[in-house]
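Shipment paperwork, digital attachment
Item: protein structure file
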Amino acid sequence: MSKSVALHTLGCKLNFSETSTLGRLLEDDGFVKKDFNEVADVYVINTCSVTENADKECRQLVRRIQRKAPEAMVVITGCYAQLKPKEIANIPGVDLVLGAAEKFNITQHLKEITKGDSTKICSCDIEDVNVFTASHSINDRTRTFLKVQDGCNYNCSFCTIPMARGKSRSDSIENVIANVKSIAAGGGKEIVLTGINLGDFISAQSLLPKENGDNKLATDDKANFYSLIKELDKIDGIERFRISSIEPNLLTNEIIEFVSNSKRFMPHFHIPLQSGSNKILGLMRRRYKKELYTERVALIKTMMPHCCIGVDVIVGSPGETEADFKETVDFLTNLDISYLHVFTYSERANTTALDIKPVVPINIRHDRNKILRNLSYQKMQYFTTQHIGQTRKVLFEKHEANGMMEGYTDNYIKITAPHNADWVNTITEWKI
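Attachment content:
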């Protein structure tokens, strides 16, 4: 009898793409996929560790599984599993912990453990992780998240990602193209390009002609993110590409100009800011100042006035005074952006931010979060209102809730409509 598996994702779009790939690996090995709320033989939790809340959520999920299916095997992978494998192994009910180098060997590891054995940890030093494993979501959503880059060479003072994901490394342009064509053949309409530091994409291996006429695989430092999107724009079958998130110092004029002229790359950027105070950006070890961010937004809006711009912001980081926070609020208020993703700073082990003083009290961090979430709501309302009466193209998704369906315009305005099966995974002209 076939064993069943249920998978759950915590964290980012890149994690979502990896969970989907893990699910396909397990299905290929004979597992039957189940919903995470159902009773299954194996549960896989792909974790995040950007905030303390993500760690807590992982522990809560394991307890829930213990109550629902005490005989089930529980596998934890992802960033939390790489950073704190022993801590996870001590959670009652966890059977297998897979670090960054072992997550895609999950089927083999499951064959080697038995419920009731002591928890098995399969991890390694993150410095030894240097392989890129392609992954993408499929059949889970109308939009496909395609991982093209992993890891990060930046060392922001608040961040554990380099410790959890390793050094920056990328897929080859040739392999990305092959994956995109495969997704198109499967009926996919929109691909979201994802990575930990997406703008740092450097094609791992590009076909370079040798002098004797043969092709060889070699590193090509000129094959960067701009090279990648130019190649993807030529591929028939995928109607929409989105760039998930790109650092302002890596978002070049040529990328912005290219997107403004492209029919396939959507007018939508998500650009991390983290703070509107240059003092705090310096303490965070960010690689730009707010003036550069202002220039990026101004150029985008000059070339694409209808473009949606999302912003990541962290509130309450060490050293952030009331004056610094006010500077951030004022900066964002006056910036022509569309929405915010607001994160409350939480202390992470082994980060240099722990040495920065003064520490912002938790209650003040939460108050600042509320202020910026309210600003985000106002920004999105204003952005949407500007487009009322316009007709834009909407890609409707298959998810149905209470007889309604959702889709997004090219410039990322969410549209809700009565469910119509004929609209699923189709691009429809829609008057806002």
